[in-house]
Amino acid sequence: MVFAHTVFALPFALISFTLAYQTFPLERPLLLLIKVLGCMVTARNSAMSFNRLIDRHIDAHNERTKNRELPSGKLSPRAVTIFFIINATLFVACAGTINTLCLCLAFPTLVLLCGYSYTKRFTWLSHFVLGLSLAIAPAATWIAVTGTLSLSVLCLSLLVVLWVSGFDILYALPDHDHDRAHNLFSIPQRFGISASLWISGALHLLVVPVMVAFGLFARLGGLYLAASLIFTTLLIYQHAIVRPHRLTKLNHAFFTANGLASILFALLTIWELLGL
Description:
The protein is mainly α. It contains 13 helices and no strands. The chain has one domain (3-274): Orthogonal Bundle (Tetracycline Repressor, domain 2).
């Protein structure tokens, strides 16, 4: 179920965990980290399996997605349903072992993660719902450690919303004709390819001041500055290689550039937070 997609949210959850732990030291941080990672993996598995399950008929008519496991018959709907139920149950159970607040928030979190899959059927704002779904990761991690929220982690979550929404618009570019034909909604379907590139670029431009704000709230220095410059450079790079009539490198921009950006950003930021 495309476990590699976890790389988009997990690095920011780890940043949040490290910063929260420095603010609120724990007696058994490794155990809590394992629980947080368990929640991350099972939540992602739940969301991906649910999305693939309800979109299997749509995917079957799309050249880009028709070879996915369900449309191609490699997996049965029953098997994916069982996989979803198991992971959703494990997610709630794992959240319950952290604290009562996490347990209570696990249910609306599942609703949001799974509800995203329906949004493309009625609104072109679906990209922002996906961004919000992934932005839960750093905020939820902070709550798991501290039981509260802070301005620093809210900035980090906003960064994820803007970043993910922006690159999801790029990812939807090749599907704009398919979406129009099947009455599905997206920013490329609504505004066209050229305008969508501008909208995506504007969202990624807004990442920069939010990144600066997070650094100020978290009182970060040189390594974080390097992390921010690398992240910004990779955002610029993906916009440089994706053009209205040159979408062949889209997967490279989507997976490679964004995956590398999140990993390097997290590694350098955590390095500074730990003072290594």
